[in-house]
Amino acid sequence: MSSVSPIQIPSRLPLLLTHEGVLLPGSTMRTSVDSARNLQLVRSRLLKGTSLQSTILGVIPNTPDPASDAQDLPPLHRIGTAALAVQVVGSNWPKPHYTLLITGLCRFQIVQVLKEKPYPVAEVEQLDRLEEFPNASKTREELGELSEQFYKYAVQLVEMLDMSVPAVAKLRRLLDSLPREALPDILTSIIRTSNKEKLQILDAVSLEERFKMTIPLLVRQIEGLKLLQKTRKHKQDDDKRVIAIRPIRRITHIPGTLEDEDEDEDHDDIVMLEKKIRTSSMPEQAHKVCVKEIKRLKKMPQSMPEYALTRNYLELMVELPWNKSTTDRLDIRAARILLDNDHYAMEKLKKRVLEYLAVRQLKNNLKGPILCFVGPPGVGKTSVGRSVAKTLGREFHRIALGGVCDQSDIRGHRRTYVGSMPGRIINGLKTVGVNNPVFLLDEVDKLGKSLQGDPAAALLEVLDPEQNHNFTDHYLNVAFDLSQVLFIATANTTATIPPALLDRMEIIQVPGYTQEEKIEIAHRHLIPKQLEQHGLTPQQIQIPQVTTLDIITRYTREAGVRSLDRKFGAICRAVAVKVAEGPHKEAKLDRSNVAEGEGCKEHILEDAKSESVSDTTDLGLPPEMPILIDFHALKDILGPPMYEMEVSERLSQPGVAIGLAWTPLGGEIMFVEASRMDGEGQLTLTGQLGDVMKESAHLAISWLRSNAKKYHLTNASGSFDLLDNTDIHLHFPAGAVTKDGPSAGVTIVTCLASLFSGRLVRSDVAMTGEITLRGLVLPLQVNM
């Protein structure tokens, strides 16, 4: 065979600065490219170049981190490795970067740096011979005994490993087929060595010196394997496999593998993960998927982005509570006491929870109901859900759905996306650790819709008892049983909930509280909570029920108790200031108005001089008096009343009636005023009324005119024709608020009847309801 000239690398090479390891000739390495210089090199040479030479790079080990993007080029190591770029993978998350798969060809020495920007280019001198058909016998003759000694240690090292592993068997064959001069570099890249030792091998230009430096490394590895085999006699064959050697996954040009310094820990983690999968109680379908994924994970390099995704997926599958559940507390009597202690009123809601407990006693495998609490804000819908979980002895998890407009929040993202994660349902199950928790879907009426899908449609499968036993999250891609989960949804109104979703839930109306209920709630729950939060005691502040009623009627107007709670907080803060000022500013009681029925009033008097304890004893008062909050103290702390009791004053003349208006916040009263004057029989309506309310007014006046004689209604001139030479003006105050609906009909009739009869409407009665032309009052139907 004729002699063949050596293969020459280009005399000018672009330099790739890497800090992740040392690339030796014959080995393969993955490296991340994220610095400005390296990014420009990849874009200019690898992505745009078409020739073979454009894929050859000069890889220089660099101690400083190239991601620092320093303006000046750092000092370069004088010897590097010419490498062939085999693969380029790019990504924009979390920032633009590339991952290169490069294979070392030969050593080179930098002669001169020709340019530094946008990426360094240098004139190089090739140090190793590259031959297409190397003469192995000639190399053995030149190296003689040193080569044979190295080969003997290399064979001994490989044969100590498990030859049933394909990668190890392949490495054994390569020892005989590869040229001897390539073996030191390849084995150094395989065995466990530090970057400093690899750098010394790279700098060893002489082949004889390279053999001499590599033989001690092989001997050290052989001794380590011997010790390992002694300590792991009873382990499985798989555990003997690769401690010092990573399986060869890719062979290109001169084959090699990538060293991983954390291989032991990672291998142990994978073994532990595999053990958890075997011992888990997941269904058969999920177990098959996990076994398949763990096999893929073992064959996958850690540097691949999919490695972390697969590992996170398997860890989630292991952590999910496939068959782990809590035992329900089915003592109905104890549950009733607990619900009564936590919440006052709400009898309908408590009754439904006790019914569920009773049925659970009779049937253990009862599916969890899908409840929806509908009511105004602040009435305790969310806290009731927490109390239900406490009553049942279950875990509780709240999912806020307000503003959610992506179906992936419910069903999760597919694992093909970067940064994919499971949906809130599966993530909540992972958090609570059981498969039968109480899930509170808060604000289900405020779900949005966008280009990313409709989350309300995604909830159809979750909240359907006939489907949720086989719920499939896009991230898991296997079915999960949600039939034992007790779902409780909350909403302020059902008007914005899609009909299909509304049909799957059992609606339980949670009405607003009456004044009497608010007083009880305040003294059972709100006041003790505020006292504890502000560090006060009942011996320092007293809020009588009369004062609580004043706060409810004059300072708040709501269906719930949130604003009432804030008012108590303001009172406690004001009292805390007085208490913190110390004993030199005491509270005195002014009893001058007891005879007038105003009760004990407390006025906080700030004296310039402190009074002695003997003085207070002379007055017959204890040294420290609790601060009593009465109406005068309320005005000092909360300011003048926001809502005066004007009902009796406004109904002090005929032609005024009180109606009831529904709002999502619980409703409110609405005054209707009427007046008459000489005119041409016209009806004037003001107050931003809708067409339906205007029609109700015409119906009311028509029915009154037709029944004027029956009820003795006359106009100013005594005629039974109410519109004879008479104009009527109907006004609905709060003119800036738009009003509409048929339910004001009975209120308008009462208002006009009061006007024409001259009789006052009772101030303690409000009314609502649609009327017909025959005088019937129809039942109220409100779509909440």
Description of the structure:
Residues 651-784 form the Lon proteolytic domain. ATP binds at residues 375-382. A motif (Microbody targeting signal) lies at residues 782-784. This is Lon protease homolog 2, peroxisomal. The protein is α/β, with parallel strands linked by helices and 784 residues long. It folds into five domains: 12-126, Archaeosine Trna-guanine Transglycosylase, Chain: A, domain 4 (Roll), CATH 2.30.130.40; 138-229; 271-319; 332-509, P-loop containing nucleotide triphosphate hydrolases (Rossmann fold); 648-778, Ribosomal Protein S5, domain 2, CATH 3.30.230.10. Helix content is 38%, strand content 16%. The strands form seven sheets. A five-stranded mixed β-barrel has the order 1-3-4-5-6. A five-stranded parallel sheet has the order 8-9-12-7-13, sandwiched between helices. Strand 22 (770-771) and strand 23 (777-778) form a beta hairpin. Helix 3 (145-159) runs antiparallel to helix 4 (166-177), helix 18 (515-533) packs across helix 19 and helix 18 crosses helix 20. The longest helix has 25 residues, at 207-231. Residues 238-261 and 584-623 have low confidence and may be disordered.
